[in-house]
Amino acid sequence: MTAELVRGQNHPLPDTRLEIRVSAGHPVVAGATLGDERGTVPGVEWIAHPGSPSLPGVEVSQQATADHRLAVDLEALPTAVHRVSVLLALPVGVGGPARFGAVEAPFVAVTALDGTEIASYTITGLDSESAVVALELYRRQGVWKVRAMGQGYEGGLAAMLGDQGLERPADLAASILEAVARGLARSVSAPPPRVPETERVRHAAPTTGSDTMPGSDTMRGPDPAPTVPVTPPPAPTAGTGGPISYAHPRRATPDPEPQQTPPVPVAGDASGWSMDERLYNQVWGMFEDLARSTAAYRSACDFAESRLDQELDRALSDPRSRIGGAGDAAREAARAKHDELTARAQEALDRDLAQLVAESEVVEPALPAAYARWDNPVWQAYRVPMEVPMALRLGDLHLPERTDLRIPMLVRLPLERGLWVDSGRGHSEAAGLLDEAELRRLALDTAVAHAARLLAVYPSGEFAVHVVDPAGSGAAALAPLVEAGVLAGPPAAGAAGVSAVLARLTERVDLVQMALRAGAPDALPPGMDTAEQLLIVHDFPHGFDDRAVTQLRYLADEGPAVGVHLMLVADREDASAYGPVLDPLWRSLLRITPVADDHLADPWVGHAWTYEPPRFPPGSAVLRQVIAQVADARRQWGR
Q1: Which residues of the chain carry a pLDDT beneath 50?
Q2: What are the backbone dihedrals phi and psi of residue 58, each rounded to the nearest 5 degrees, phi first?
Q3: Quick count: other Cβ atoms within 10 Å of Cβ 568?
Q4: Quick count: other Cβ atoms within 10 Å of Cβ 378?
Q5: pLDDT of residue 81
Q6: What residues does 421 pair with on adjacent strands?
Q7: CB 569 within 8 A of CB 444
């Protein structure tokens, strides 16, 4: 039975291999410190955090997420360790809440490896604190216990680390938050919370036997997904062998009638006022379903491996099993149990993936132009829209468990952050197979495809594109936009051209900001273009002096809030001479690549997703056809 702790209460720990599960409803940083008998942390090497996630006996997440699973092996801790403190902190400088009082109360649970909850604690009473010691695992007279702490710190991570006796805590806190900022920069932003009107649940067959697997209950969140049994009796509580629910919290709802087969997928089967909104919510639901299903599968496989290791260790440590066939039988039984657990996990994953594939096959053809691939027939009937859509497709995402299941990567409009099309090699295997010139060409082609889609989904005259091409090396790729006359002006070349474009857009940001601060958004200079603006910068930092770099950083930081957006086509190595000065610029932009690369993370469990850039069908003229319609509409409307 789970012990629901209150602040200061303790509870004995029956196991030494544990998971600590955190659900905060909003991205938080999770870490752990190892303390001696007095609770003092001797140095930074005794702290597990996103920049250094693994220590003997402790492993934490490498990024800030709403859900965390911390692995703890008390027997593997150094003998000098008598206390393990679990720390939570809000990430700083990423635009999120600055105090725990502004978010829902974090929930922390200590579980065995099979998912059975041992103790839980809801951290209430926080207000202005931005960091908190959630739990403490401590050893007293050879027995390990857990204590609910809930000790908050208004001074944040630095104050919390300093209170544990660490020297120069501000330096370590800064390095941790820097690592978190890098992780968040690669994370796809989740859509804003919504209240569903109608919801669905995916069912999976119940497990059998006494061994359940981590992930057999949906990750705990603000609206926990109920587990619905397929066959009577009613489902037992989590961790006792009940059915596996892979539905994410906001799409799951109890079903009054048990179902033997999954429902037939229907396009638009989600909440929303319009079909576009329902499809948008459905795609994000598929994204979250796949993330959580895969997390459950991977956790189950990890549990099977851990169980196998434990049983093999026991078999080898028993002298009686070393004589005769008893040892061989024990090892064979352990491997058979491991195979059974992994097979059950694979079966559940395959069942859920099959339903997601079926749903994708229904949803993909029904997507509107803003959400559709370039090979979708919807583009053959394209007409310039009269209103801005909810979102835009930037490409596809997939996981290694099912590479042919592609989830559309949709981002909300207007863009909340700029885009960086990386023309460097990075760590991508696909990029390593291409020469530098080909990779740079593909990067600019990708930028042109994104710009064309943005022009196509906005009403006529409501989106303007500026191009900076200092060396003129992108003329061939930019030709469709230039020849159609859909750019705000010819591509700017040379240092003078760069300076002129940046000056105009910087002035525009200043004027709009002043008007908004004065409470007079209509008091803009006569003739000022009020359309959304996009600046494409090719071959950065060529042609940029220090002043131009400062202006570019200003546009990246301040522009999106007033309708000025940035798309940077660059190799970070080319700008290495600027050193850390440009680090905030790279972090502020969403990095996408011209070839497949697994650099993006989901906002729920932090999987590494492979991003696939948009591609035009071979020999297709769809780009020029769409741009020609955009240009015709502008001429008709006099824009």
Answers
A1: 194-259
A2: -140, 135
A3: 26
A4: 16
A5: 92
A6: 569, 592
A7: yes
In whole angstroms, give the CA distance from residue 88 to residue 12.
Answer: 22
End-to-end CA distance of the chain: 69
Burial class (CB in 10 A: 0-12, 13-18, 19+), 124: exposed
Ranges of H-type helices in 77-168: 156-163
* C-beta separation of 230 from 328 below 8 A: no
Residue 185 pLDDT: 67
Supply the pLDDT for residue 220.
31
Greatest CA separation for the chain: 95
**CA-based nearest residue to 407, from 386, 428, 393:** 393
| pLDDT given at position 308 | 86
Q: DSSP string covering 309-360, please?
A: HHHHHHHHH-GGGGSTTHHHHHHHHHHHHHHHHHHHHHHHHHHHHHHHHHHH
Residue 191 confidence (pLDDT):
67
> Is residue 552 within 8 Å of 565, Cβ to Cβ?
no
| Beta bridge partners of residue 55, listed in sequence order | 58
Radius of gyration of the chain (CA): 27
**What are the pLDDT digits (tens) for 521-574?**
777 788 788 899 999 999 999 999 999 999 999 999 999 999 999 999 999 999
Backbone angles phi, psi at 510, to 5 degrees: -60, -45
3-state secondary structure of 451: helix
Task: Return the structure tokens found at 376.
Answer: 């979708």
Q: What is the pLDDT of residue 93?
A: 66
Q: How far apart are CA 110 and CA 118, in angstroms?
A: 6
Q: What span, in angstroms and rounded, lies between the C-alpha atoms of 83 and 34? A: 6
Q: Which structure tokens are listed for 557?
A: 């930081």
pLDDT for 211 equals: 39
Distance CA 204, CA 1 (A): 25
Do 515 and 524 touch, CB atoms closer than 8 A?
yes
Q: 189 with 603: CB under 8 angstroms?
A: yes
The pair phi, psi for residue 400, each rounded to 5°, is -65, -20
Are the CB atoms for 491 and 482 separated by under 8 Å? yes
**pLDDT score of 639:** 61
Do residues 221 and 66 touch, judged by C-beta distance below 8 A? yes
Q: Which residues contact 242 (CB under 8 A, 6 or more apart)?
A: 206, 207, 212, 216, 217, 227, 229, 235, 236
Of 456, 321, 396, which is closest to residue 597 (Cα–Cα)? 396
DSSP structure string for 115-137? S-EEEEEE----SS-SEEEEEEE
